[in-house]
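To: structure subgroup
Subject: Chain for Friday's discussion

All,

I'm putting the inputs and outputs inline so they're searchable in the archive.
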Amino acid sequence: VLSIGHLTLRAPWRCTISTLDANDPSPWVCVPGFGKSCRLFDLLHIVHLGTSRDIIPSCVIDALDDGTLAKFYGMQGSSDNMILFQMSQHAHVWARDQGLDLYIGTLTLQRLGRPRNRNWPYPELDSRIKAARCRTLFGFVTWLMVQLASYPLPPDRKKQADVRAVCCWTLDVALSIFNQNTYIKMHAGVVKEVTWLCRLHSACYQYLGVQCLSQRRLLYKIRPKTHYFTHMLDHYESSGLCLMHLSTFGDEDFMGKIRRVAQSCHGRTYMHAWAKRYALKRALQWSELRKCEEKHDQSWCVCVCVCACSFCMVHDANIQMFE
């Protein structure tokens, strides 16, 4: 059995993968030039809505178990939920100082995936926390884990705290590089650096999962998306394409705008009314575009093109105008 939980470059399953597998046909094989190497992995659903929902609660509960989180806030002897309440307040202040959005309320053991039992099951972050705020929360948890790594602990727990900080820091830096990259094709040197960071993150996460299992603690779950992350990294290393540009953030935002239009329609007619309103809005936008082309006002054309091609920029007042 080849374990999908082996995330390093020495994993046995790496000897069996192939982009040309006759036993794994795809409905796209009839398209000229298609191959498995043409498939792309979505950073949004693999990391922001996937592995980060495991990393965040696992790191926080791990810090609760070793006592460093309570020491950090000077709350030794307090309940876990009281410590999490203080941490949540700190996270909101930290995000505000960074100019980020982190309106997620107060974290509790229940929202970390431990509603009834303190040690079971594997923790998973509340699914109501959306991707952007999940990313902000991960940034705060990374900063917090780095601070906690300096606290004195027994040798075995000290090493685990250090690896925990490295696990979070490497992924946080890699995601930040993706966010700041303005080009689809990334520089070879940057690709090499990000690949090294992500592989180190996977190795640290695997170590933490194995250590917790040996301690009979259910933390750092390795799910299929954790394994997909390694395949996504392999594709990124070979192609050099920025994973943020290939993600579906824009598609998710567009669906949110469509939902807002549908919510303003009558329940009996919304299946057709939302499409009519959207089509009417686009028609008026393209009408304005033709007018500006006739006036040869290039600056206004650029502005209208941006508005016409991005439904996400529609103002509430414009939507209400068509009700």
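Points worth raising on Friday:
The first helix runs from residue 43 to 66.
The chain has a mean pLDDT of 86.

D.
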